[in-house]
Amino acid sequence: MNSKLESSLPMIGQPLSDDPDTDLEEPVLSFAVAEAEAGLRLDKALSLRLPDISRSRLKDLILAGHLTIGGSPAPDPSRKLRAGEPIVLILPEPVAAEPRPEPIPLSVVFEDAHLVVIDKPAGLVVHPAAGHQDGTLVNALLAHCGDSLSGIGGVKRPGIVHRIDKDTSGLLVVAKTDRAHQKLAAQFADHGRTGPLQRAYLAFVWGAPNRPNGTIDANLERSHHNREKIVVVPEGRGREAITHFSLLETYEGEKQPGGARPAVASLVECRLETGRTHQIRVHMASIGHPLLADMAYGSGFKTKAGHLGVEARDALSLLGRRQALHAALLGFEHPATGEEMVFESPLPPDLLRLKAALGQSS
Questions:
Q1: Same domain membership, residue 42 and residue 26
Q2: Which of 119, 165, 167, 294 is catalytic?
Q3: Fewer Cβ within 10 Å of end Cβ, the chain: N or C?
Q4: Same domain, 168 and 298
Q5: Is 165 a catalytic residue?
């Protein structure tokens, strides 16, 4: 973006209008298309002017009729702009809809009056968010627990102490009382450094680490270029993130010219010392071993599938966009009794199928 265009950007969050007497209840962005924006798609031009709003959110606003060009609705996000065109975009405040109970089946590993431990399937979002207002774990918990769910997490996150990605399977604990929520949250905030909290994941990664055990200590922050991704940043920036890994199994690929069969994939256990968004996925990718089927952080390794056997390729294909990651172990101190509790979850069928197929390729 050139300086001329940048200097023309309005202040978002204020009502903007040519008429100073206009009383607007919602923030409005009003501008004329600059020469530098001519020929750009409508959604692209808006994303440059509004970097704090996702392009998908802007597209939804356009499709919903919140934008006009020259006073007429312009519901096509791909429309090419012409210099000088007057654009008005209404930015409605997001509505925090209250989640509704839904009878979604849950795999309950343990439950008492204070908490519930769930074995979450891949594909289930933990709490409502943009694009996922229904069909979440919270909706299921509201139906399962009723009013006994802790309210500390707020309307959209009742009882939620920690979370795992939508496309990661495995164990998580949910608080049913506010006191349990406070005590469990303190354990997660401490990362188990002074208590019994422990979290271990099983991850299928491309290639194999060059040592049986290791620690990845690399700070993380949200990418400035793609707000849906997390990146490794130098010390002094971002948030501390530490992952300990152990190599469990290696899987050889098909024979290469000369008879060599290098390790095309491996199974590693990752234990979290901190719990950041996408931590394992980003950390393993940062050392050259992204997770299988992780299109966000391992898309450059997609051709590696050609080195797998037929059954392994089929098993990998069946994962779709679900990264090969499973929260297999969760341990914590019971917030009411003080008892040290440890739960384990076996690999789900899709990852068991992948493991067996990779083993057959070796």
A1: yes
A2: 165
A3: N
A4: no
A5: yes
